[in-house]
Amino acid sequence: MSEPGAAGDLAASAIRTATIEDVSEIRSILAEHGNDGPYTSVDIVGPYVRHLIQAGRALVVEDGPRLVAFGATFSTGRGRHLSDLFVRADSLGRGIGRPLLDRLYGDDWPRTTFASDDPRAMPIYIRAGMAPLWTCLYLQGPAGDIPPTGAGLTTETTDHGHLAELERIWTGADRSVDHAFWATQAGADPFVVLDAGEAVAGGYGRDRQIGTARVLDRLVVRSDHEPVGPIFAALHRAARGGEVRTTLPGENPAVRPLLEAGFRLEDRDTYMASEPNLVDPARLLPNPGML
After folding, report:
1. How far apart are CA 11 and CA 66, in angstroms?
2. The pLDDT value given to residue 12
């Protein structure tokens, strides 16, 4: 999700805390890197940026009258996650990326992020104490290509408070503030996957800003339950009979059957962390901006 610049000449004093008034200019920076675009009735990026400003550590870099970079981190209950770090194309190589990254993480450990394929991204994150651990795959396909879920699995509507409590019990991470945000996204559908009436996974479906496909935005599977059946059940739920997109760690056991069934690989990036076992890639389908 992030593409920092190289070391160079811009003073660290140009970094300041982002405010809601910066959202429009921040979005123009994201758009330069293909992370925002035109929308009609469904806006996903705007609420996401506002959430990072209000609930995380969001910083911008000023160069005279304009913003030339934006970055944000927040606590995941497992450590501090870098959601975004983007520098305007005409300001790359001016020393913006590294001091901004240092301010975003501060002295906080453990650290995580998703690095884009931009070759400038991964080295700076390795120098910041993280290692590449697995490829994160963005898969999309029609509901008819999702394999069967298996006997006994159903889904049921719930609320963000219940999903936050399940995640806290299953993983020890308190994500209640983020769950409240996920439940407000366009077309949000908070649900649990049940096995013989017992909750074994929980997540959210939502709309996309561009295109008509639905998104399985995030899913957590209970640690003592096999993950594949609940993942398929969640994809069926999120798809609503149409196309569905989701993010899967490359080593997740659902990846191969989905690709064999006809799902397409639309994009990829790399999960990086300062510690190897912060999340279970078989049982977390992450929101790439927020883990």
Report:
1. 15
2. 63
Q: Which part of the chain is CATH 3.40.630.30? A: 12-129, 137-285
Peptide bond before residue 110 is cis, with ω within 30 degrees of 0: yes
Residue 171's CB: how many other CB atoms inside 10 A?
Answer: 20
Sign of the alpha-carbon dihedral angle for 145, 151, 157, 160: negative
Which residue's structure tokens are 């400003």?
Answer: 53
**β-bridge pairing 131-142 and 153-157:** unpaired
Residue positions counted in the chain: 291
For domain 137-285, the CATH architecture is 3-Layer(aba) Sandwich (3.40)
Could you tell me where the DSSP H helices lie in 145-252?
A: 160-171, 176-182, 228-239
What average pLDDT score do residues 10-18 get?
A: 81
**Is domain 12-129 given the CATH code 3.30.420.40 in the classification?**
no
Query: 76 near 275, Cβ under 8 Å?
Result: no
Q: In terms of DSSP bridges, do strands 264-273 and 111-115 run parallel, antiparallel, or are they unpaired?
A: antiparallel
Query: 169 CB contacts (<8 Å, ≥6 apart)?
Result: none
Cite the DSSP H helix spans in 18-89: 23-32, 45-55
Q: What is the pTM of this model?
A: 0.94
Buried-exposed string 139-157: b where 16+ CB fall within 10 A, e elsewhere: bbbbbebbbebeeebebee
- Residues 6 or more apart whose CB falls under 8 angstroms from that of 127 comprise 98
DSSP strands (E only) in the chain: 15-17, 57-63, 66-75, 80-87, 111-115, 131-142, 153-157, 189-195, 198-206, 214-221, 243-249, 264-273, 284-285
Q: Dump pLDDT digits (tens) for 151-165.
A: 899 999 999 999 999
**pLDDT tens profile 127-144:** 999 999 999 999 999 999
